[in-house]
Every structure is written in C-alpha cells, then in structure tokens.
C-alpha cells in the first residue's frame, strides 16, 4: 500500500515519517488494505500499535545485525580461502623443490657409485683411497650390492655390524 492509498482510505494526512510507522504496522498485520485502514484511526494512538512498531523496529535491527554478521562471515571465509590458495601454491612449490632435490641426489648418488666402482677396479690402493673418501661402510655396501670380492677389512666390518646388532 502506498502513502497516497492510505490517506485516501483513512481520510488522514500523514508525514513520510508517520507513514513509515503505518507501513510497519500494516506489514505485520494480517489485514487487507481496506480492513487495516478502517481500523487505523481507532488504533493510531493505542499502545498496541506502538508495541507493534517497536517490535518491528527491533526485528529490523536484528535483521540488520544478522546481515552484517553474515557479510563479515563471508569476508572471513574469502580471506581463509585466499590464505588456503596461497598455502597450496607454496606447497606445490615446495613439492617441486623436493622432487628436484631428490633427482639431484639420485644423480649425485649414481656418480658416487660410478666413481667408487671405478676406484675399486683400480686395485687395493684405490680401494683404500675409496674407503678413506667414502667410508669403509660405503665401500663394503657397494661391494656387496655388486657381488664384488670382499677383503678382510670388509669381512671385519660385516662381523662387527652383525655382532653389534644382536
């Protein structure tokens, strides 16, 4: 219902501010325009109408508060989603770095195995040099994994490891 309709049906002139109160009361009523306008002059100054207006204003304030809280919740969700997206990008970068490091380590390990194998093929002096450079465990492990002949130092190391682990 418009302000003009209200004024025509009631024969009352109201300000825009007064009409806001009328409209609020009308919106919470279950009356048709004609019924509401017929009752309005009787209820205009009554406490019931004032109570209804206060209730409507309180509900309006609650709705506004809930809308603000919802908007803030949506903003918080968007910030969290952006942070999650940033973290996922960072995680992907870290995974790539880890894969690159694994590839580099495998390449280094392969080169070390090749170097150790070449040193062992050169004979006893080179084997001792390899044991000094890579460690007796690394030399013995390499020899075991490649079915190479074990010397007394290798056998002693294996015996020590087996005895220590029992």
Contiguous low-pLDDT stretches (5 residues minimum) are none
Number of helices in the DSSP assignment: 7
Give helix % range: over 70%
The string of secondary-structure elements, in order, is HHHHHHH
- Structural category is mainly alpha
Q: Main beta sheet, described?
A: none
| Fraction of residues in β-strands | under 5%
Total strands: 0
Please tell me the total number of domains: 1
* Rg, Cα atoms, Å: 44 Å
CA-based shape: rod-shaped
Mean pLDDT comes to: 86
Distance between the termini: 95 Å
Description:
The protein has one domain. It is rod-shaped. It has helices at residues 3-10, 16-28, 33-43, 47-121, 124-134, 136-145, 152-165. The mean pLDDT is 86. Helix 2 crosses helix 4 and helix 4 packs antiparallel against helix 5 (124-134). The chain is mainly alpha-helical and 166 residues long. The chain is built from seven helices and no strands.
């Amino acid at each position: 219902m418009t302000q003009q309709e209200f004024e025509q049906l009631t024969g009352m002139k109201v300000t825009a501010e007064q009409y806001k109160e009328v409209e609020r009361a009308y919106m919470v009523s279950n009356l048709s325009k004609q019924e509401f306008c017929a009752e309005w002059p009787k209820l205009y100054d009554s406490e019931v109408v004032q109570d209804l207006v206060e209730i409507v204003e309180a509900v309006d304030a609650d709705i506004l508060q809930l809308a603000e809280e919802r908007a803030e919740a949506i903003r918080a969700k968007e910030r969290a989603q952006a942070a999650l997206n940033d973290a996922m990008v960072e995680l992907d970068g870290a995974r790539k770095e880890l894969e690159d490091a694994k590839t580099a380590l495998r390449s280094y390990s392969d080169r070390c195995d090749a170097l150790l194998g070449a040193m062992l093929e050169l004979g006893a002096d080179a084997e001792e040099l390899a044991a000094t450079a890579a460690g007796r465990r690394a030399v013995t492990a390499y020899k075991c994994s490649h079915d190479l002949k074990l010397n007394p130092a290798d056998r002693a190391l294996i015996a020590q490891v087996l005895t220590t682990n029992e």
